[in-house]
């Protein structure tokens, strides 16, 4: 449970940074358009080019569901993971105290 709490917290913090990029883009925002980091034996960027297309602008919202961007959905799920891990840790602590 502790590992889930740590990874969910780290994911939420990184996601908050991405949301800040979307909401308040810097003047010179540029993301790498390079897709040569895929191994030659497993070229996902060639097999699924629409999935791995880089636009070069980190602040551009490319996907939304119910008019809510993907980054906001991810933050919601990370918060849910954090809450589940906290409840799990509390239940483990209370269970150990009963013994």
From TrEMBL:
**One GO term describing the cellular component:** plasma membrane
Location in or out of the cell: Cell membrane
Q: Which UniProt keywords apply?
A: Cell membrane, Electron transport, Membrane, Redox-active center, Transmembrane, Transmembrane helix, Transport
User: Where do the TM regions start and end?
Assistant: 73-94
Q: Which GO terms describe its molecular function?
A: protein-disulfide reductase activity
Q: Name one GO biological process term.
A: protein folding
Q: What is this protein called?
A: Disulfide bond formation protein B
């Amino acid at each position: 449970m502790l590992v889930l709490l740590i990874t969910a917290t780290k994911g939420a913090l990184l996601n908050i940074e991405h949301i800040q990029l979307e909401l308040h883009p810097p003047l010179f925002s540029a993301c790498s358009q390079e897709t040569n980091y895929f191994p030659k034996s497993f070229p996902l960027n060639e097999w699924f080019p629409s999935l791995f297309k880089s636009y070069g602008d980190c602040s551009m919202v490319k996907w939304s569901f119910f008019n809510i961007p993907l980054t906001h959905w991810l933050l919601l799920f990370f918060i849910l993971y954090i809450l589940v891990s906290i409840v799990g840790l509390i239940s483990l602590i209370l269970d150990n105290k009963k013994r």
